[in-house]
Each structure stands twice: as structure tokens, then as C-alpha cells.
ATP-dependent DNA ligase
Amino acid sequence: MTPITEVEGRRLALSNLEKVLYPATGFTKGELLHYYATTADVLLPHLRGRAVSFLRYPDGPEGQVFFTKNVPPGTPDWVTTAEVPRSEGPARMVLVQDLASLMWAANLVTEFHTHQWLADSPEEADRLVLDLDPGAPATIVECCEVALWLRERLASDGIEAYPKTAGSKGLHLLAAVRGASSDQVSEYAKRLAVEAEGALPGLALHRMTRSLRPGKVFVDWSQNAARKTTAAPYTLRARERPWVSAPVTWGEVEGCGGPGMLAFEAEDVVARLQEYGDLLAPLVGGGSGSRLP
């Protein structure tokens, strides 16, 4: 029998709590739900007001993995939704606004992905993201080298960057911006990627061409496009272990000395929150972003 629980006055059916989602560690669906409930206070501010895409893996990362962008069938009527623009026409998507809707969505077994704009102002981006993706044999170590160069380059334009792990093998840099469209942020991000390649020719790459990527870090600027989404801070990832897209300090980026570093699982992130709080808290809150040069 599926247990029913009440979250903030909403009745939820939480199913298959004993199902093992990550066989490498024995991490269960119940543990996934517990992780999201435990981190809700820091996760929700990064989701609230943003149309959310779900990367679902109901049978674990080794099973079927698929994106859900439109409001899923069976969504409770109390879950907030919003109409958002798309090139093929407007669509209705979920907004995860509170603990109840977070737990409902987590019960679907999801990664949370968001746009770089808020649902009530899609014409203006409020985040800039640079996704640093290493091509083997490059690792997180090389990503950190590129991230440090980009930090200084952004700082020269008065923009403060904040790092988080991708939750797999790469690194994300985030910054709060204002007064620019997604197209303008994309153009600026591409310019940074091109400059990084010029300054670090053996290390950074601004083109996605697969044949060019071995041993280099692809600086993916394209995720700033209005249609694109990026893994949200604190989301679990559909990987072989319950890795999290976890904020890190610049000190940790500077000290990254090996490919196994900066890989955090769910229990690590809960402990880190007790030590650091939300390292990305400065990104939350309207009107605090920097204007692009």
C-alpha cells in the first residue's frame, strides 16, 4: 500500500520508498526524498519563480531517463504552473514554489533543471551560466584552471561568479545579471568563451566540435539561450552514484589537485550545508545582479 503523508497541508502519496535507485551505493528512493526534504530551505529559493524541467529516472540512472518539460499528467491542481514562451508556441510548465510541490516532484524521481530567467519576466535573464565540460583525459582539475581564469575575467567587468559542481565531471559558474535579454547574455558568454580559448589555447575551447574536445575544457556558453535549462543547485543527478550539483568555495577550486576531488554525494551536501550554509545565497533575490558591459 502506498503511504500517504501530509506536507504543508497537502496530501501526498509517496511510492516505492525501498526501491534502490543507485545500485552502486544502495541509495533508495526514500533516501532521495529525505535528501530533498532536508535541503529544501536552500534548494527552493533557486527553484522558486522558475519554470522547471524534470529529468526523470524512475528506475534509477541505469533505467529509462527522459525529460519532462510540459506539466506531467496527473499533476495535482494545487501545484503552481505558468505559461512560458517557446519558439514553437507557448507551453505550460511547473513552478516548484514550496515544500509540498518539491516533494511531489521529487516523488517522480527527478533532476531539477531551470532556465536563466524567471517565469514572470522571460524577456530578461537574471542569471549567467558557463558550463565547463572536460573532454577526457581532461578532468575537474582542468575545469578549475579555466574557472579561475573566467572568475578574474568576469571580475574585470564587475561581475562576481560563483562555482558549483555539475554533479558529474564538470563545473558550472553562475552569476547574477540584470538588464539584458537571454540573447545578449548568450553573446556576452560566447565572447568570454572565445577569450578563454585565446588566453588558454591548450586548455579551453569555445566550440562544441567533438573532435576538438579531447584533453580540453569546453566552455559551454550556449546554456544562456532562452530555451535552454541547466541543472539547478542542489539537485541530485542521474549518475551511477547519488552525486549532487553542489556549490563549492573558490578556495576548493584553487586547491583542486586530483580528478576525484569536488565530487559530493547527498550525505556530503547535507554536512556541507551545516558548515557553509548556501554558498549561492547571493544569487537569490531580485535586482541584485550586475549589468553586462
Remarks:
- Residues 4-121 form a domain with the DNA primase, PRIM domain fold (CATH 3.90.920.10).
- The chain has a mean pLDDT of 95.
- Helices lie at 29-38, 40-47, 99-107, 140-156, 182-199, 250-254, 266-276.
